[in-house]
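Subject: Sanity check before I submit

Could someone independently write out the structure tokens for this chain? I want to compare against mine line by line before I put it in a report. The sequence has 489 residues.
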Amino acid sequence: MPSVGSYMAVGSGDAFSLPATLLTVILLWSFLQWSAPLWLPGMAEKYPDKARFYRHFDRSLTILPVVLVLLVILALFKAHFAQDFTHGHVVNFGISNSSAWQRMLHGPANTVGSPWLGIIIVFAITTLVKECFGNSGYSLFDEQGPDLRARVLRWHGFLWPLMLIGFIPSDAFAVYSEPQSFIGSQIAPLRTSLTLMFAGIGLGIWPYAVANYSQSGDLKEGDNFLLASITAVLALFFLVIETLPSQRVDEFGELIALGQMTDFALTSSLVVLLLGWPIFLMLLSKVHEKRGVAKGRRWLGLTRSLTHTLVLIWVSGAVILESLPHIAGWSSSFWLSLTLMLPLAIFGFVGTLLPIVGLDSRPRPEVWGFFLVMSLAIPFLTIREPLTLVLIPGLFMSMTTLPLLATHLELRPNLPIQRRVLESVVLIGLTITALWGFHQMFTGDTAAISLAIGITLILPLISIFLLNQKMAIPSTNVTNKDSKSGVED
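---
Independent answer below. Compare away.
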């Protein structure tokens, strides 16, 4: 399994490593991916005689990382085929007592304990298929597709660093000047290989699906973005479960506290990004479609969104931390939860400033930016400190309930007070029940843990159910002709 605490670099050996160097180039290339929508169209307008070159460069932004990953695999094929013990990957994850062809086919990404390189390989292949067959007709220079292309590029510019830093330790591709002592591994079970494949496919489709949904607001045109999200999340968790140590629940909590369950912590943080963020987009769109823009007191909706989220994240972290044996009471758990939450809160408040730079064409742009930046930040904060895991339930529950709760304090003549009270009682009551269950997380009460996780996962469905309930519209109903529609990633 990858060690999340060690960052991917050009290798830790004393000789040049081609695979590590190529992956580092991808890491640097990701900067161009998310920044290109800001400057590439302007360059094309300034130099119209080079329009063809800029179109090819636009396409290369997503194709080049795929090519580099394939070159990495070819280099690993060669090293495993020759059983070159100067390569750290061959030493640690090579297969002994097998033919050269078996070593070449299984060694790079299909052995027990190896990094999740298989996910990156399948992600790259899926991206290639989408670029060549599914999304080949749009670019940053087309009138109908620049926004869609920009979203895809930005998501790729984020996912590549996340996968390279989170899935691959820095010493995985080390190369040494002298042969090393062989450690070796064995071929991974078929279920592991299939799980890697599904995780890679889900991650590969996800940026296109979320970008399409953000563009259209239509689930059908969004290429089933929820299916891609759920596939990626479930596959990643299956991979984690296969490698979890056979510990008691309380010992499992200690391993997390000591930073030894980094793979589980990272995968949990990806739930917020891969599943929580698309659900938030969907709820934000549906709430805006059905309830429109408030007539007044919109600042109360914004205030509630920010304060409710921060308080819930803080309290949920403290509730989970208090159940750990080494935490000395509630005061210590609240203080530790606060220190873990502060960096995440800072990122969130930075996100509220996104409308200043023109990203204000969707409902509740400040809340949109708040949750977007926190969703992007929490995986990297978890890589830095795995104990950030305890903040994830609070953030996920906030994202999947606040699009509805934020409307309750605003001036909306067409939203009866009884309806507001009912929705608040149901959603807040379920949230409190989930917090009680999470408090039992490391005490061995599996029923309480299952209840907490179950409530957390069904909260989006409860929100949609409440939103779709018919209500009596007062005669003072206010139409919102000036309301803007659509969401953005």
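---
OP: Matches mine. For the report I'm noting this point. The chain has two domains: 1-178+185-191, 244-489.
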